[in-house]
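so i finally got all the pieces together for this one. its two components total, 576 residues if u count the protein bits. some of the lines might not be protein, just check the labels. i wanna see the whole assembly predicted at once instead of chain by chain like last time, that was a mess tbh
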Amino acid sequence: MSQKYYEFFCPVKVIAGKAALEHIPYELTGLAAKRPMIVTDKGVRAAGLLDPVIAACEESGLEIVSIYDDVPPDSSTSVVRDIAGIYRQEKCDAIIAVGGGSAIDTGKAVNILVSEGGDDIAKYSGAGILKHPLKPFFVVPTTAGTGSEVTAVAVITDEKKGVKLPFTSSFLLPNAAIIDPRMTLTLPPHITAATAMDAMTHATEAFTCMAKNPLSDAYATAAIKKISQSLLNVMDNPKDAQGRLELAQASTMAGIAFSNSMVGLVHSLGHATGAICHLPHGLCMSLYLPYVLEYNLESIREPLGELLLYLEGPEVYSATPAARRAEATISALRKLRDQLYKRCQLPRTLKETGKVQESQLDHIAEMALDDGSIMFNPKEVTLEDARSVLRRAWA
Amino acid sequence: MLLKRIQPMAFQARRLYVDIMFQVMGRALQAVSEVDETVQNEARALPQGLLFEMMVMPEGPRLIVEHIGDGHFHYHGQSAPRPVDLSIQFKHIAHAFLVLSFQEKTSEAFANDRMLVDGDVSYAVRMTRVLNRLETFILPKLIAKRAVKEYPANLHLPEKLISAARIYLKVATNFVETVRP
């Protein structure tokens, strides 16, 4: 009997493409919601990204009752409590999170408080605490990378205790993710590159780590194909709405893939580097991806070789001997990183970031070893292994 | 018909096996923390007094150990003196049996959603490394290779045999002490 077993779950309605935002009123009405609140950050508002969302709702006679636009990059328990207070005061009945990872995580956490009651979000921290569906919750991503719109996780900082609180429940998943190319059209080049490489890493790790499964594989490969076909075009022509949509869809697909198959050492190192050196997550992903794939190579040779088809297309794939495809995949990713460096100086090594000291590598290695995602890395990682990957990524 | 008669006995035997394995593992965790420096270094990063539980949902067999400080564990048996801080929970006795009979690696069981972590995930990762280290000592290499993601290349036979003998001796002594009225 086969020992293979997997679980796959994604109940999020994906609403994607031209005029997708204009579907929000209809979808909210379908959930009997009439008084939505928008949760976002100042950057999103300043970029004018709320305007089409508000216009789409108002045109259908749906009033946005309240807008909270002060979500910080690392959202905290007090921010969540404040927003929940406004939601209750204004008698809202739905949340629309517009933004990147932080605004989306904040929206998820606020939804816990306004649905379950109370002011202390910390008591809902952990896995499987929530037992009931929450209030209607929509997500409009404004970056194409995190995949938070389809993940059942939120992380909020408890500023009093100085710790990050994880929340895990399938009830955190939004009712709908609205992918509209207008939302990512004005993303600056380096953020476009870093977030796309974040999605690329989600998909690559989903396809090569221990919890890979046939359904997440399908999403992962489709995401890799979309990113490799569209990313450089978008970098050269930022107003390419079709390319932007492809990247946004790829991000959501990669999110569906990794939330059902988890990620590995790239994320362990990336989380640690982000915490210690305050580097953006997407940049860390892009930076570590080839070095970790080289480290894992002998454990993932077969699936990694398959990815060449989605990265380079059928001609290159068929012209490459099967035994060389895994190495060719890593080369293709390195080539992509070189192209991004040429276009927006997205760093390829820790030294190129200018924000990491060589003396910090040991600390990064130690912290990475305690990261939850290391459990799903296909190859065992010791402290010395992590140090060695970091040394290779240094310069 | 025969299958219907045998099945309850098989289920009972499986539960008994998991129960006994938890008792052995709990005592062995205490023992390995007394003899192995690597385990002690791993455990030192855990808060003193941390109660770790491994159990089968909903109310199945369990083992509870406490980090009593300086990298040492104390086995509490099946009952905790206070609410546990970290719990690794098998969703079903069949899943615990797969892992404890070395048909599925601990890391595979996590990847296959057989178990849940309730508590700080970084401590769970650390405890998984401790469990892996324990298994590499107390199991023959052939079986240990099925239980852990990667058998450590630097663990040679003399060290393994000496450590295993010391762990088994401590486990046996602990069994005698706890069974004695």
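Chain A has a mean pLDDT of 94.
The interface with chain B takes residues 3, 5-7, 126-128, 166, 209-211, 262, 369-372, 374-376, 379-380 of chain A (CB under 8 Å).
anyway lmk what u think
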